[in-house]
Amino acid sequence: MSILKNLPFEWLVGLRYTRAGRRSGRNSFISFISLISMAGIALGVAALIVVLSVMNGFQRDVRDRMLSVLAHIEVFDASGAMADWQGTAKQALQDKEVIGAAPYVATQAMLTRDDILRGVVIRGVLPQQERAVSDVASQVRQGSFDALQAGAFNVVLGGELARALHAEIGDKVTMLAPQGQVTPAGVLPRLKQFTVAGIFEAGHYEYDSTLAFIHIEDAQKMFRLAAPSGLRLKITDMQRAPQVARDLSKILSGDLLISDWSKQNRNWFAAVQTEKRMMFIILTLIIAVAAFNLVSTLVMTVTDKQADIAILRTLGASPGSVMKIFMVQGALVGLFGTALGVGLGVLVALNVDVIVPVIEHLLGVQFLPKDIYLISELPSDLRWPDVYTIGGVAVLLAFLATLYPSWRAARVRPAEALRYE
Fold first, then answer.
1. pLDDT tens-place string over residues 162-190
2. Burial of 278 by CB count in 10 Å (0-12 exposed, 13-18 middle, 19+ buried)?
């Protein structure tokens, strides 16, 4: 209470108006509108926090599933073949942030079984080294990734690709290389039978439906390559991939091209960022509508308190002081609403994995059916910078909403206000 006594009188009067007198029905009605404005701001802030957290969660899950197959950084030789990949890998590992390196062959081919034909991306790898740069080996659900032995001509297929080909472990699939083979009878396609030795599930449809792994030596023989296509690198912090790629460009020797994961999927990440921005703008409009309800609330308060304003003016209060009173009232409503919204939004965002199953059980529905969506649980990734931004925008909108009614209150003329009192 001693703290309140030390506050300027504008704050004390503004606080009193915020608590709203209950002596008349009009005051109670104004108080009710203030509560509705506060609740609207709170719901808007909470909705924006939850929606952005869920979008961040989806982005994180999809990104992690992509990077379980993709490398953080890829190094190519401009000639198309990296003969001395061991030397390049040794140079790259000198960077403290690089923790894994593995060679690979990347090309396209056709896989056929019976009368089914599918275009695929073929990746030739060394199974042991591949473990250092990706999680594919741990994602093999049937068979074994180690079955990719040189000369065995085994293949590990994505789950969706295997289902499309009706292929199971031990079945034969025929690979058609895009380069033809010149014979006296003309150009014939190069064919080779491979045995399905494993089926992996990365959880990302694009890779599960189009990607196949074979041993790097088998790939070089099949596609007549003199050396691996390049080198795949894994780093400690994938968010620093662009910076690490720039650092590697300075220390790696040779005519090399370096690309990080963010460049390889630039369109997808750009689309997600655009979605997030648009969602932020749309949901901010909800907060704006609730915030500008304060305008009507404060206008009604100013009309109701004209006699009080006149008395304050006759006692020596300046127009600026009167303006501060109503700005304090509106700002407090905005602050309380924002605080409630942030608390509710953070609570829901941190417990989405518990709340959503309860709602699904009560309503008897499933928001993300497993047979349609690869992600069957609603993910959430609460980021505090988003929370701070949302809270700041909500408070700013509430403050802007107080300016006109406060300015109108400051223009009240004491003589006219007291004429009929």
1. 998 988 998 999 988 877 666 665 566 77
2. exposed
200 within 8 A of 141, measured Cβ to Cβ: yes
d(CA 123, CA 142): 19
Q: How many C-beta neighbours within 10 Å does residue 20 have?
A: 18
- According to the model, what pLDDT value does residue 363 have? 80
Below-70 pLDDT ranges, the chain: 1-31, 180-188, 304-306, 308-309, 311-313, 315-317, 319, 367-377, 412-421
